[in-house]
Amino acid sequence: MIRVLVADDHPIVRAGIVGLLDTEPDFDVVAEAASGEEAVSLATAAQPHVVLMDLRMPGIGGVEATRRIVQGDSAAAVEAGPRVLVFTTYEDDDQILAAIEAGASGYLVKAAPAEELAAGIRAVAAGQMVLAPSVATALAQAARGAAGAAGAVDGGGDPRDAVGPAPRLTPREREILALVAEGMSNPGIAARLCIGDSTVKTHLLHVFEKLGVSDRTRAAIRAMELGLI
Q1: Which residues have a Cβ under 8 Å from the Cβ of 15 and sit 6 or more positions away?
Q2: Model confidence over 116-175: pLDDT tens digits?
Q3: Candidates 3.90.580.10, 2.70.70.10, 3.40.50.2300, 3.40.50.80; correct CATH number of 2-130?
Q4: What angle do CA 86, 91, 93 make, to 5 degrees?
Q5: Which of 36, 30, 24 is nearest to 4 (CA)?
Q6: I need a labelling partner for 84 at 20 to 30 A (CA). Which of 47, 103, 107, 204 fits?
């Protein structure tokens, strides 16, 4: 069972999320929080595997609560620490970057379908990073903007040079990365391409090594920065 803590300051919204998660046989909602402080406290007391975190809440807010959960006492309370999946209505670039930098393992928007939320929780619990496609695009654009600014300061040139030379990826690796950037899970990619799940994982491990990253989300963002997908 995946133990989930739901943190949202709107009682009706929170109840709706809990009701939705209760329909999934492998989820156990172990606690609910109405503020950032309460989320931090319950992340230690309830020992969830995944904290489903809204961003704008009373008190310290979702970004700071995420930072404290990932880096604080709650990380020692659960083996490998609880993972935070941001679930919010906001797609502001600054908010997205702040949440990821605080240690969030994923960022989904509340307009996402129920099956995407469930899949996101399972992926985060399994140690993967999950980003809504629109969020991944926003992060890639922000990264490209930063690279372009760096190139301008350095005297111009191709902005991609600011993030290093592009490695050589095979056509299959590019194909898989493009599907990752669309928000697809490893099993979904395997079904789409008619290959085994283990084959997808092997290709991604090769991609991680080539791009110098440690997870699928950063691999997709890096590939977009370099113009590989």
Answers
A1: none
A2: 899 999 989 988 878 876 676 666 666 555 555 544 445 555 444 444 567 889 999 999
A3: 3.40.50.2300
A4: 100
A5: 30
A6: 204
C-alpha to C-alpha distance for 16 and 21, rounded to whole angstroms = 9
- Looking up tokens 């590939």 gives 223
Tokens representing 109 are 């928007």
Strands 83-88 and 27-33: unpaired
Are the C-beta atoms of residues 221 and 208 closer than 8 Å to each other? no
Q: How many CB atoms lie within 10 A of CB 197?
A: 14
The maximal CA–CA distance of the chain, rounded, in angstroms, is 57
Provide the residue type at 121 as one letter: I
Sign (positive or negative) of CA dihedral 70, 76, 77, 78: positive
Q: What is the predicted pLDDT for the residue at 137?
A: 65
Other C-beta atoms within 10 Å of 105: how many? 26
At 32-81, the pLDDT tens digits run: 999 999 999 999 999 999 999 999 888 899 999 999 998 875 444 444 67
Domain 134-225 classification at class level = alpha beta
Q: Which residues of the chain does CATH 3.40.50.2300 include? A: 2-130, 134-225
Tokens of 50: 């995944």
Rg, Å, the chain Cα set: 18
Torsion (CA) 42, 43, 47, 52 in degrees, nearest 10: 110
